[in-house]
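Inverse folding, one chain.
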């Protein structure tokens, strides 16, 4: 979706939209450009809003109706093989454009990584590192893919300090975890589209117990954003067609480096290495 003017326009206006119009934008961006190529009613149904709500979005964006928006989508994406295959039904279109697609994917990944590193500013990293270093316990969780970033955070953080844990999977185990949380504890959540109800339930229960939240999310922001003490918001360019994990790992690496600088874990790491040799 890189360098598409329609996508850029949708992303830029998203934070200013009312909830119903935000829902339309999320559907469009989640399945771009195909979500834009059906009927207005079908798009509204996917977003759970009324057709007039969808129409107001396109008026707000300056288009002369939904048909004008669709024309802009086709014009902006005409050189993309997936769209050409969708429109023409040509089975050979994707084969001839494999190399350009790979180059575009590499460019998107590079752009997304640059944007991610820029979004993780020093003040944000220092604030998050202070929480990770000083917390009584640290608990981390993520969604279907971002749980790998949460796992990586805890594996590395557990070498730097005690009391670093993955949030357990079962409801009963999560209830026991929340039961013992208090204001000295920190939850690190990785929450990206499509936002996880399981993450939301755990975080809200943890917050009710006083736990603080470090939230890593995307440009469209998890519904949990208002709960976060530290919010790291990755840019739209970090949301590729296969939701690359590299951006989440990159942010996690920076969090770990910042936390290590506060913890000075040399003695702990030496003891850990000695135990590894023994065991």
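Residues assigned per position:
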């Amino acid at each position: 979706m890189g360098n598409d003017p329609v996508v850029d326009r949708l992303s830029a206006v998203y934070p200013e939209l009312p909830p119903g119009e935000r829902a339309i934008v999320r559907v469009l961006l989640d399945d771009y450009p195909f979500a834009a190529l059906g009927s207005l009613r079908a798009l509204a149904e996917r977003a759970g809003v009324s057709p007039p709500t969808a129409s107001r979005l396109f008026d707000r964006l300056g288009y002369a109706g939904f048909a004008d928006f669709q024309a802009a989508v086709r014009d902006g994406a005409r050189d993309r093989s997936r769209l050409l295959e969708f429109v023409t039904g040509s089975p050979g279109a994707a084969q001839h454009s494999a190399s350009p697609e790979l180059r575009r994917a590499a460019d998107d990944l590079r752009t997304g990584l640059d944007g991610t590193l820029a979004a993780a500013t020093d003040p944000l990293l220092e604030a998050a590192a202070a929480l990770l270093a000083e917390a009584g316990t640290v608990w981390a969780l993520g969604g279907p893919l971002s749980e790998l970033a949460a796992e990586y955070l805890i594996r590395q953080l557990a070498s730097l300090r005690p009391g670093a844990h993955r949030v357990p999977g079962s409801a009963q185990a999560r209830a026991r975890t929340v039961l013992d949380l208090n204001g000295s504890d920190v939850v690190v959540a990785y929450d990206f589209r499509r936002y996880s109800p399981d993450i939301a339930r755990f975080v809200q229960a943890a917050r009710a117990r006083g736990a603080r939240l470090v939230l890593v999310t995307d440009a469209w922001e998890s519904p949990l954003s208002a709960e976060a003490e530290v919010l790291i918001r990755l840019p739209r360019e970090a949301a590729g067609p296969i939701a690359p994990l590299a951006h989440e790992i990159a942010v996690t690496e920076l969090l770990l480096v910042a936390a290590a600088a506060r913890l000075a874990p040399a003695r702990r790491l030496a003891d850990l290495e000695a135990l590894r040799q023994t065991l």
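The chain has a mean pLDDT of 85. Residues 193 and 218 are 7 Å apart (CA to CA).
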